[in-house]
Amino acid sequence: MEWDNVGLQIGDATKKVSSVLVTLTVTREIVRKAIASEVDLIITHHPVIFKPLRQIRTDSPEGTLLAALLKHDLAVYVAHTNLDQAALGLNHWLAKEIGLEDARVLIPALDRDHGLGRIGRIAPRSLGEFATQLEALWDSSVKIVGDGNQTISKVAVVGGSGGNFVHQAKSAGADVLVTGDVSYHDAIDARNLGLAVLDPGHFATEKVVAQGVGKYLQDRFDGDMQILQDTSIDPFSF
Fold this sequence. Notes:
about 240 residues; 6-stranded mixed sheet; 5-stranded mixed sheet; elongated
């Protein structure tokens, strides 16, 4: 997406790579692990540099992180909204995780195979039962908008922050939208639309990135490259 910042953010594009660490967010813990594991490249979902930098101060958390990456020659590649919209990317993996059948793109981009979110069907069950299943699947508390006893079968899912897509989910015929970072106003809109919402948090709906990208690389390099995976951390506890 045009507002995003993806691609190689730190490092030399001609550098030889033999080991990779795949993660959701580059934190200080991830940098320490990358240094200790002597990897050449970190692939992350969330950009390390998002807004233009006006200074790099090594007495700030961001500056310390960047300084450590440069000092240890750690390249960083970002796959963010490009991965969100990929035909076999984040939202495809999410749809598989929650068992959606006949899943299709919720908000098409270039064509019917590319775009944000997925919508498909599950065997009918109560909203509360589905919420409990997601809690077990992602080890995360789930906020609910709607009646826990209502029966749902058509599910929309958007990885990350997708509360602003309640209207698209309703228009597509979804009974429930599964996404993170749902705001108070998005929840009110969903309630007025008669759309149920399950919010397990941003981290829960994106942590599949490490496994998904890791497997993608392993399949293509067939053991010729060391691929490490670390989901990073959820800053929230429940």
